[in-house]
Amino acid sequence: MFPNVPLYPGFVMPRGGNMQLTCRKARLLCVVIMFNICICVLMSVKWNRRRHDKDPRKVRIPSERFWRPQIASESFWNKEQQRLDFLYNPIINSALSDDSLVVLPDWLNDTGPLNPCDPDYRVFTQISDYNSLPQRFHDFLLHMRCRTYPMLINQPHVCDESPFLLVVVKSLIPHFDRRQAIRETWGRAGVFANRTVVTVFLLGNTSPLDNFPDLLGMLGHEAKLHNDLLQWDYRDSFFNLTLKEVLFLEWFSKHCPLAQYVLKGDDDVFVNTLQVIDLLEGLSDNKAKDLFIGDVISNAGPHRNENLKYFIPESVFVGQYPPYAGGGGYLLSGELAIRLYNASQQVVLFPIDDVYTGMCLRKLGLAPTKHSGFKTFDIDIKYRSTPCIYRNLVLVHSRKPQEIIEIWPWIVNPELDCQ
């Protein structure tokens, strides 16, 4: 009745009384085989899912809600920055066209005066210790949103020849001697090592509150004589150095966008211009594009001691500072300077200018690069009168006008043997 037909390799259906027992064994073996097949299928599915998860082209759907209502910071600057981050968010911008998609938190509607250059009287109530802060904070916070000031002296054609290097010096009106020392030495406009160099000085205005004598007549004469002054009508103070930075970047984007590189420095630094040009000429195109080098400060935060020059209260700002180059001087590409200007529109003005520039760099996803040739905290006192030391430096802070004039010949004198 049952032929000896193999059901699987090595198995033959027998005849006789053991038929029932043999059938049970066959069924058990089939179950084992099916179980193994299921295991293989499950392992294959798991392996394919793991490959799917690692595929960078796939978008993972989060298991929890990732959009949570934004809560306003207790610190005034942080709250203002949150507002800009919200408004410049590209996803939110596209959704704002449909009022049904985005409901703005109430605190985002607290925008202050319609004219950003009108005093922002919200600070009286939103900064708990406002009345006890130094006067410089009052001035800054009341006008923190204003970025538009009349230009009193302009040089719209100073970059007509598309300079290789634009030297930009932050100065104050009374510092005539410092500017002249720079013109006669490292900031001399013209041709250095076959490269065109242009120099401009950045100035604000004096305020009766600062008790400066009337020097505008002398300044007008200087402007006509040298054609290298840029002046805006705002109070030139320490906290307004950030404003000076933003106004310059705007000017640069309009009047000097083809300058290849920009060297920014204070009017009390010494710069080895020949070393700067030599450094720049050796750069690859990739390094030149995002170039921003200086004496970099990392892992820093605000000082809470109100007796210090760099004091920032918690009511104004909380958090760590991004890496930033000391404001005494740094070097960047002209292309990056234009991108910094665009980024600055999305960063609230901060009262410390070099920190603010670091914030703008971070907005671009960049950070400054430390260069050993920048000495914004000076060099060891025993080396300050050694001529050959300055041959390998890019920038050193600080030096008096007489010292700048003394050091410059050490740089350009071909007879000085520094081997």
Could you explain how this protein is built, in words?
This protein is α/β, with parallel strands linked by helices and 419 residues long. The chain has a domain at 151-412: Spore Coat Polysaccharide Biosynthesis Protein SpsA, Chain A, CATH 3.90.550. 36% of the residues lie in helices and 16% in strands. It has 13 helices and 14 strands. Strands 3, 4, 5, 6, 7, 8, 10, 11 and 12 form a nine-stranded mixed β-sheet that branches. A three-stranded mixed β-sheet has the order 9-14-13, with no helix packed on it. Strands 1-2 form a two-stranded antiparallel sheet. Helix 11 packs across helix 12 (353-363). The protein is globular. The termini are far apart.
In short:
With 419 residues, this protein is α/β, with parallel strands linked by helices. It has helices at 19-54, 76-87, 90-95, 123-126, 135-142, 176-184, 216-226, 241-255, 273-281, 285-289, 334-344, 353-363, 401-412; strands at 6-8, 11-12, 151-153, 165-170, 190-192, 195-205, 229-235, 261-266, 269-271, 292-297, 324-333, 369-370, 374-375, 395-397. Helix 8 crosses helix 11 (334-344) and helix 11 (334-344) packs across helix 12 (353-363).
Multimer state: single chain
Radius of gyration: 34 Å
Low-confidence stretches: 1-17
Termini Cα gap: 109 Å
Question: How much of the polypeptide forms β-strand, as a percent range?
Answer: 15-25%
Shape: globular
Would you give the CATH topology of the domain at 151-412?
Spore Coat Polysaccharide Biosynthesis Protein SpsA, Chain A
| Element pattern in H and E | EEHHHHHEEHEEHEHEEHHEEHHEEEH
Shape-level CATH architecture of the domain at 151-412: Alpha-Beta Complex
* Mean pLDDT reading: 87
CATH class of the domain at 151-412: Alpha Beta
**Number of continuous helical runs:** 13
Main sheet record: 9 strands, mixed
How many beta strands in the DSSP annotation? 14
Portion of residues within helices: 25-40%
Structural class: alpha/beta
